[in-house]
Design a protein that fits this description.
The protein is mainly α and 82 residues long. The chain has helices at residues 11-23, 28-41, 51-63, 73-81.
C-alpha cells in the first residue's frame, strides 16, 4: 500500500469533507480512501462532462420516457438525486 499526501487543499474543503465523513460515521482517512477506490473502479467514460452536463443528460433521458412526462423539473431533480 502507498501513502498519499495532498498539499494546498483549502481548509474549508477539508472541513466539508471531514463533515461528510463524520456524517457517515467514518474517519477522514477512511472516507477519502473510499472516494479514491470508487473513482479507480470507474472508466474514463464515466468522468465525461461536468456534473451539470451529466444532470442535463439524465433529465433529457427521463423526458423521453412517457411515464415521466407529467413530472415537473423539481420532481425530475428529486428523482435523479435519489
Amino acid at each position: 500500500m502507498t501513502n498519499v499526501s495532498i498539499r494546498d487543499v483549502p481548509e474549508e474543503v477539508v472541513n466539508k469533507v471531514r463533515s461528510h465523513a463524520a456524517g457517515q460515521g467514518k474517519s477522514l482517512q477512511a472516507y477519502v480512501r473510499e472516494l479514491l477506490e470508487r473513482d479507480a473502479r470507474t472508466t474514463p467514460a464515466d468522468h465525461q462532462g461536468t456534473r451539470g452536463t451529466r444532470l442535463v443528460r439524465r433529465l433529457q433521458a427521463l423526458e423521453q420516457r412517457s411515464e415521466y412526462a407529467h413530472m415537473s423539473t423539481d420532481e425530475y431533480l428529486e428523482l435523479i438525486r435519489g
